[in-house]
Specification:
By secondary structure, the chain is of the alpha+beta class. About 40% of the residues lie in helices and about 25% in strands.
């Protein structure tokens, strides 16, 4: 039978599982009388535990949001789930503060039972990720992230200090529609009130964010993630590419995802009933496109630019020469 301290911690664990617990239920689970339960609750209150009483027929005790996090009781499986979430989030670039995720994981690992820690180490040694963020992970400031997401939720404008990719700083008033994590980076999509157009901003390039008075109405239409991918696909680059491809959207999207190209229906060539789609994209370089088009393994017609036709022909000649070599 655990001592009083152990029963107080058990009481905390019961309350953390959610809902309101009656005194009779808690007394039964702890193996004590009702007045002892009340004494244990007083001890939690002395430790600044956010326990509140609920009056009425179905009253009892429950945990309320407190000004600081109370001691947290986790089972072995819950601790493993939290640690894996931290590790996966950090690897995928979803954790806003790298140091915070490291210290949180260290605190949990420090108190894990030895057999659970061994299970975790065995899992991490055999775990790998196929979906890695491209390039260096860029994490935003936690305060900026929380301010912007709160503005999204309550439809409040925000003032941000932003530095673009050329190093130019500016102050913008943004009506944020949503926050999207993509390829190891965080983005906010919304309307730049200064120019009256929709824009996408990298959150790690925002040095400060302040909520402004007033509200705004978010427009109907694509979700923030779709707006982000469409913005990537239509961004200004050196080359504008248009290719007609025979196949379904699923077949084409496997090689030209929404963040790279837009797709639309187009008329099939005369004498065929096969489905054709027109893919439009912008690219800074064309050297990767011949291999990508070849990987489609579908008939295609290059509408523009002429330089891409030449590159595809040269790529085909190289493949043919490789096939003939011994």
């Amino acid at each position: 039978m655990p001592g009083p301290t152990g029963r107080v911690l058990t009481l905390l664990e019961l309350l953390q599982s959610g809902g309101t617990r009656t005194v009779a239920e808690l007394a039964d689970r702890l193996g004590v009388e009702g007045r002892t339960v009340r004494r244990y609750v007083d001890q939690l209150l002395d430790l600044d535990g956010p326990v509140e009483s609920v009056r009425g027929r179905y009253g009892g005790y429950r945990l309320a949001p407190g000004y600081r996090l109370p001691p947290l009781m986790l089972s072995d499986d819950e601790a493993l789930a939290v640690l894996l979430g931290l590790i996966a989030g950090r690897r995928a670039g979803l954790t806003p503060e790298h140091t915070a995720s490291e210290t949180a994981a260290a605190k949990i690992r420090r108190v894990l039972p030895k057999h659970t820690a061994r299970r975790l180490d065995a899992l991490l040694e055999s775990l790998d990720f196929t979906d890695r963020p491209g390039g260096e992970v860029a994490t935003p400031d936690t305060g900026v992230l929380l301010t912007v997401t709160d503005a999204v939720r309550h439809r409040r404008p925000v003032s941000v200090r932003y530095t673009d990719r050329d190093g130019r700083g500016s102050e913008r008033t943004l009506h944020p529609y949503g926050v999207v994590a993509h390829s190891g980076r965080w983005y906010v999509t919304g309307r730049d009130a200064g120019i009256g157009e929709e824009r996408t901003f990298r959150l790690d390039r925002i040095a400060d964010a302040r909520t402004l008075p007033g509200t705004f109405e978010a427009p109907a239409g694509p979700a923030p993630a779709q707006r982000l991918l469409s913005g990537f696909a239509t961004a200004e680059y050196r080359h504008e590419v248009t290719v007609r491809i025979q196949g379904t959207a699923e077949q084409i999207r496997a090689h030209l995802p929404a963040g790279i190209a837009t797709l639309e229906e187009c008329e099939p060539p005369a004498g065929t009933d096969e489905r054709w789609l027109r893919a439009e994209l912008r690219a800074e370089r064309l050297d990767w496109l011949p291999a990508t088009l070849a990987s489609l393994d579908r008939p295609f017609v290059i509408e523009r630019p002429d330089e891409l036709r030449d590159r595809v022909a040269a790529f085909a000649d190289r493949l043919a020469s490789f096939a003939r070599s011994r």
